């Protein structure tokens, strides 16, 4: 499997972990798409040495139009989440993302993890 120069979508891309992963993958030469609705993300996380990196989409993972925007992704890393646990438990949205993501054309991998579902889901 060729792992160079992939199109990688990171949900929660403006959060601390998503943005750090995005920066690292960008520096490795990948086409990084950072997806975040900015509920808990920060704009300064989208900068590398003071300049934007990758492509930023301000979208909610529950938006059905999202899937047309990210077709062609080879890898999706799902890190989006609602930070306060009571809010997350009252309004889970991860499974709305996971099921349609499995229909992406030829993704190499799909990783997802959620506090409400502690079993990692994987597709290779």
SS field, number of helical segments: 4
The SSE order reads EHEEEEHEHHEE
Strand order of the largest sheet: 5-2-1-6-7-8
In round numbers, the mean pLDDT is: 77
Could you tell me the radius of gyration in angstroms?
A: 14 Å
The assigned structural class equals: alpha/beta
Largest sheet, in brief, is: 6 strands, mixed
Name the overall outline: globular
* Number of beta-strand segments: 8
CATH superfamily: NAD(P)-binding Rossmann-like Domain
End-to-end CA span: 11 Å
CATH third-tier fold name: Rossmann fold
Number of domains: 1
Helix content: 10-25%
What is the percentage of strand-forming residues?
Answer: 25-35%
Under the CATH scheme, which architecture would be assigned? 3-Layer(aba) Sandwich
Stretches with pLDDT under 50, minimum 5 residues: 114-124
CATH class identity: Alpha Beta
Short description:
With 124 residues, this protein is an alpha/beta fold. It contains 4 helices and 8 strands.
Structure description:
- Residues 114-124 have low confidence and may be disordered.
- The chain is of the alpha/beta class.
- β3 and β4 form a beta hairpin.
- The strands form two sheets. Strands 5-2-1-6-7-8 form a six-stranded mixed beta sheet, sandwiched between helices. It has a two-stranded antiparallel sheet with strand order 3-4.
- The longest helix has 12 residues, at 16-27.
- It has one domain (7-123): Rossmann fold.
- It contains four helices and eight strands.
- It has helices spanning 16-27, 66-69, 85-90, 94-101, and strands spanning 7-11, 31-36, 47-48, 51-52, 55-58, 75-78, 109-114, 117-123.
